[in-house]
Write a structure and sequence with these properties.
Length: 159
C-alpha cells in the first residue's frame, strides 16, 4: 500500500515538472528512512536482493500504521547521526510531502512527520564588501554610461 502511494506521489511530482534529480533524491530519502524503520521493526528484507524497484521493496516491508509509532523518530535519528543538517532537512521535507499525500489519499488520518523538527538553518550573515568593491560600486553609480555596472572595473571603462 505504501509503495503504491509513493509511486502516485512521485508521479504527481512529474506532472508538476520537477527535475529528474528531485525525483531521484525523493526516492533515496523515502528509501533511507523506510529501510531504517523496517529494520527497527524487525521486518525482514526481501529475499530478492536484486529487486528492480528498491523503493517498492523497502516500503513493502511497512504498513501505514508503522509510521505512527516512535520508531519513525528513531529511524530519522539514525539517519541524522550519519548525515549533515541539510540532508536531514531534505529527508524530513520529503517525508512531510509524502505524509501530506498519505493524508490526502486517506491512507493516514494525520501526517506523522509534521511533529518532527529538523536541524535549524544557520542564520544568514551578509558577506562584507572589500574596499575595492565599494569603490567600483561608487564609480559605477556616478557614471553616465548605462553599462557601467556591467564593466569589469566599473566606472564606465574597460580594463
Amino acid at each position: 500500500m505504501l509503495a503504491r502511494a509513493a509511486q502516485e506521489w512521485l508521479a504527481r511530482g512529474r506532472t508538476q515538472k520537477l527535475s529528474a534529480a528531485t525525483e531521484t533524491a525523493r526516492r533515496q530519502d523515502l528509501m533511507a528512512i523506510a529501510s531504517r524503520l523496517a529494520d527497527r521493526l524487525d521486518r525482514p528484507a526481501s529475499a530478492d536482493g536484486a529487486a528492480a524497484d528498491r523503493l517498492a521493496t523497502e516500503l513493502g516491508r511497512l504498513e501505514p500504521g508503522d509510521l505512527a509509532g516512535p520508531e519513525l523518530l528513531d529511524a530519522v535519528a539514525d539517519y541524522a547521526a550519519g548525515y549533515g543538517p541539510a540532508s536531514v532537512r531534505r529527508v524530513l521535507s520529503t517525508w512531510r510531502g509524502f505524509g501530506r499525500h498519505l493524508v490526502a489519499t486517506e491512507v493516514l488520518l494525520s501526517n506523522p512527520v509534521d511533529g518532527l523538527a529538523g536541524p535549524k538553518r544557520p542564520e544568514w550573515v551578509p558577506k562584507a564588501l572589500e574596499y575595492a568593491e565599494l569603490e567600483r560600486i561608487a564609480q559605477a553609480a556616478g557614471s553616465t554610461d548605462p553599462r557601467a555596472r556591467d564593466l569589469p572595473g566599473g566606472g564606465g571603462e574597460w580594463r
